[in-house]
Amino acid sequence: MGIELDTGRCIGAAMCVLHAPAVFTQDEGGVVALLPGGAVRDEDPEVEEAAQACPVQAIELR
Ligand code: SF4
Asked: Would you kindly state where each structural domain of the chain is located, as residue ranges?
């Protein structure tokens, strides 16, 4: 399983950062990014919540 981010779709709503602050962050433009080591926590329930909370489905878990 891995985390795939569609940065072109991200609107900077920050729901992912709220739900899983150890995994997601935002760059200077507000676009989602993974924190170092964040990808290894992709089976974390918080990550699943973050993916579900994203209003534009920019986080894909697979
Ligand atoms: S919740 Fe979605 S739109 Fe908001 S910052 Fe995260 S990836 Fe981007």
From this structure: 3-61
Residue to mutate (ligand 1; options 10, 27, 28; most atoms within 8 A of CB): 10
pLDDT digits (tens, 9 = 90+) for 16-49: 999 999 999 999 999 999 998 776 665 789 999 9
CA distance 42 to 28: 24
C-alpha 32 – ligand 1 centre gap (Å)? 6
Q: Tell me the C-alpha distance between 40 and 55, whole Å.
A: 23
| 3-61 topology per CATH | Alpha-Beta Plaits (3.30.70)
Q: Does residue 3 contact residue 43 with C-beta atoms inside 8 Å?
A: no
Predicted TM-score (pTM) of this structure? 0.90
